[in-house]
Amino acid sequence: MNIVSIIEHKKNHQSLTKEEIQFFIQGYVAGDIPDYQISALLMAIRLNGMTPEETFALTDAMIQSGDVVDLSSIEGFKVDKHSTGGVGDKVTLVVTPILAALGVPVAKFSGRGLGITGGTLDKLESIKGLRVELEMDEFIANVQNANIAVAGQTANIVPADKKLYALRDVTGTVDSIPLIAASIMSKKIASGADGIVLDVKYGNGAFMKTEEEAQTLGQAMQEIGEAFNRKMKIHYSDMNNPLGRFIGNKLEVVEAIDVLAGNFEKTSKDLIDTCVDVATDMYNMATDNKPTAREEVLAVLENGQAKEKLFEMIRLQGGDVTDTVMNDVAYKVAVVADKAGVVQSIDAQQIGEVSVSLGAGRLTKESVLDFDAGIELVVKDGAEVAVGDTVAYLYANKEISAAIVEQALRAYNVQ
Ligand code: URA
C-alpha cells in the first residue's frame, strides 16, 4: 500500500478500504506523509465524496490517533451537545446548567471562537477569575459533585483533526460533508459522552448555507454516532439572523443569565426557543423520553435553579459570580435607521464581522479580545422601524469608526 495509489483510487471514484484510510491517517500524524499528498487526497475526497462506510472508517482512524476520555467514573447517562457554530450562539451557556439542575451530568469540552463565530471558552473567560483549563481529575470531580463542568480539552484528543483541519483551511477543502462529519464526530466520540445532541446551523452565518445541506450533514453525523453506539439527536436551526439580542463575550454571558433566570423579556424568542428545544432533546435522551421533559426544563428556568447551577459552576472554576453584569465601556454608539419599514432580516455574517472589528472576536489565534465589546440588537427581524429609530448599539473600549457603524446599519434589511 502506498499514498499515491490511495490518491489514485479516490481520484478514480473508488471507495477506500478501512486499511487505506488507517494508513493515510497514521502516516500523516506520524509525519511520514507530506502535506502536499494529503492535500491532493483531501481535494479528491472533497470532489468525489465518501460512502458512509468510508466516513465511519475515517472517523474511527481519527479517534485512534489520540486519547479517548474515560467518563465511566461519573454515574448516570452523560449527555453532550455540539453546535456547528454561529453568531450570538450562547446556547451551551444556557443548556448545560439546565441539564445539571435536572440531575443530568454534563461533562462538556468547548472551544474558542475563530472568525465570526464566538466560542464558549472565551465567553466564560469574560467572567473574572474563571478557569477553563482544568486538569482531568478536577473536571471529573466537578461533574461528580455538581453535575457540571465546561472546559477546554487538556487531553490529546484527535490530533489528526488538528493537522487535517489546518490543511483543509488553506486548501479549499473545509466544505466537504464527510470531512466535516468525521472531524466533528471524532472529537465528540473521543470526549466520552453516552449521548450527543447536535445543533446544526444553516444560513449565511453558518458553514452550511441551506437547510438541505445541513440535513445531509446532520444525517451523516447521526449515522456515525449510532455506529459508535451513541444516542444521537439532531436539531436544525436558522443562522440567517444572529441568535438572541446580544453578540460579544460578556454581553452573551449576561443574556444567557437572563434566559436562565427566566427574564425572557430581556432577550428574544429565537434564543429561548432554541435553548428550550436543545435542552429538552438532551433531557429526553437522558431519561428515555420523560413525558414531562419540556415542562421540567421550563420549571428550572422559572424557579432559578438553572441560574444557580451556572453560578455554582462559575464558583467551582474560580470565577467571581458578581462579575456577571456588563461593565461600563468607553464607547457606546447607536446605529440609527435611515429608512422606514419592516426589518426583513439581519445579516448574521455582517454582524459577525462587525463584532470582530469591535474586538469581540479573533482574526488570528493571537488576537487579544475585548470582553466588553459587542452588539446589542435593539430590534430584531419582524420589527417595524421609523427613520431615526435606534436599531442597535455598538460597544467597545476603542473608538468605533463610522465605517463599522455603517456596516452594522447595512446588515439590517429594512423594506
Ligand atoms: N467544525 C469542526 O470541528 N470541523 C469541521 O470540519 C467543521 C466545523
Automatic annotation (TrEMBL):
Pfam families: Glycos_trans_3N, Glycos_transf_3, PYNP_C. It comes from Caryophanon tenue. This is Pyrimidine-nucleoside phosphorylase. Residues 342-415 form the Pyrimidine nucleoside phosphorylase C-terminal domain. Homodimer. GO terms for biological process: pyrimidine nucleobase metabolic process; pyrimidine nucleoside metabolic process. It catalyses: uridine + phosphate = alpha-D-ribose 1-phosphate + uracil; 2'-deoxyuridine + phosphate = 2-deoxy-alpha-D-ribose 1-phosphate + uracil; thymidine + phosphate = 2-deoxy-alpha-D-ribose 1-phosphate + thymine. Its EC number is 2.4.2.2. Belongs to the thymidine/pyrimidine-nucleoside phosphorylase family. Catalyzes phosphorolysis of the pyrimidine nucleosides uridine, thymidine and 2'-deoxyuridine with the formation of the corresponding pyrimidine base and ribose-1-phosphate. One of its GO terms (molecular function) is thymidine phosphorylase activity. InterPro entries: Glycosyl_Trfase_fam3, Glycosyl_Trfase_fam3_N_dom, Glycosyl_Trfase_fam3_N_dom_sf, Nuc_phospho_transferase, PYNP-like_C_sf, PYNP_C, Pyrmidine_PPas_bac/euk, Pyrmidine_PPase_CS. Keywords: Glycosyltransferase, Transferase. Its cofactor is K(+). One of its GO terms (cellular component) is cytosol. The lineage of its organism: Bacteria, Bacillati, Bacillota, Bacilli, Bacillales. It comes from the Bacteria.
